[in-house]
Fold this protein.
Amino acid sequence: MGVRVQISRRRQPISNIRGQITGLRASQVAAVERLFRRRVPVDKVVSSELAKVMAQLTLDIRRPLGVLLTRRGQVQEVIVGTELTLSSTTMTLFRASARSLRGLRFIRTQLHDQPLNQEVLTDLAFLRLDLIGILSVAEDGRVGNIYMAHLLPPGSTGQLFKVLKSVSFHTLAISFDEFIKELEAQLQLVRDHHAVSDGKESAVLVSASAKSRAEQEEHLVELAELATSAGVTVIDRVAQRTADGHQRYLLGSGKIKEVLIQTLHRGADMVIFDQTLSPAQLRAISEMTDIKVIDRTQLILDIFARRAHSREGKVQVELAQLRYLLPRLSGSGNQLSRLGGGIGTRGPGETKLETDRRRVRNRITHLERELAQFARHQEQRRARRGRYGLPVVSLVGYTNAGKSTLLNVLTKSHVAVQDRLFETLDTTSRRLRFPEDREVIMTDTVGFIRDLPQELIGAFRTTLDELREADLLLHVVDINARDIEIQLAAVVAILHELRLGSVPRWLVFNKCDQAPPQQVEVLCRRFEAIGISALQPTTLRPLLARLETYVRSLSVSADRTCQVAVPDHELALGSRH
């Protein structure tokens, strides 16, 4: 007589049952778990068998019961209660974007016969589900009407979703596989149009702070310029005034969900916050959605990464990125908690997350050593240049104020210029020759911006140290800027942070040809500035005359007695030409 072996089917772990489980009997939990064994034909929204079982269970536990079904008809999750959330595992396996659906539909029972409420429709839009269906359950356990809704392609009719007419469940005649095929085809048309139109990423900009609405709008305008400079198309802007900022999401949970829904509906690829998100806030928002979420600091770091050309510039940008990334490294689920393998590579029991952090720290240490070498080389070049005794005039100012254009005009150079933020990252030095064979060295370096990320200030300190050797700072300002005083204050604050407040500084208002003459006169008098237009060389004569007088005064001082030509290779300072 042979041994009888009973093979039991593996039961779905209870962790896949979500919601209001407390208070259920063991037999009820087991009955709910058995829903994972059910399969729905691909052409059915929900099978009659599954609907009947869910209705009987709903009467038994006296709670709404929902299932998330894949397009193959498998039960992915079971949710007890009314709150619809997805587990991190499901979010990872079934991803969605502004131009795609998640590949899951949600079918839930209710103990009354009522149409879809706003909360259910919000969940549909927020989670990008294929479809939501609500089954009404009568007191005798029979399934009554079914209420359904599905999303519409972004921008198709201006509507976010379509609510279908309720019908008796037993007369439901929708072929689900054909329905979803047609809906995906419409979404594909939107994707193709988006790809053909410009191929750029698109974003919704968000500001949440205690500042006034007008101030937030000004900041969003600058954020839009940053996004455009990074090649991102801005679709919409949202300003929300908050007392201190929501601790978890920066915005309230309802408002952040509303923003994410509109982002999806407008077909945007990401949300960009004007405020720097803390690691906890970034993690909390990212856990809510598949949409890419970044903050202003990440956007600026991305621009710097695109514009860095020299080895030193690239090292500085990478260092800033890693310093920003390190506190934001976090693991979720089992993926980052698995122990890593490998002999001699790390200590026993080190998780993947710990390994990632260790590698980032090691890379930071390596980059810091490399930057220290750059600093030593720069110091040597400055020492050699100092032997020639030439004055140094450095151009500083807000980004896109026209510093590089001014350098080109004054020194007859050909430094790359474009009308966009942070075009110049690498330090450039050129000679400016005056009559009577007097010369000065003019340097142009990275532009400043309000709330310049500390990671960038720290990483670019070796580049900004070039300003310490300056005898004079020309603070270049775009006279047409909407917020001149804010830009002035931002630059002055950074100069003081770099301990450059004692260096003589002249204010130069640029782009005066684009402003009314009366406005130029008033502003120049108010701020004691010199008005110029780098595109009109004739307007530079007052500035050049004042510079020549200043250079002459320096040349007669005790430490400026030597006037000889500086070789070009001594001007390079390790920067590009």
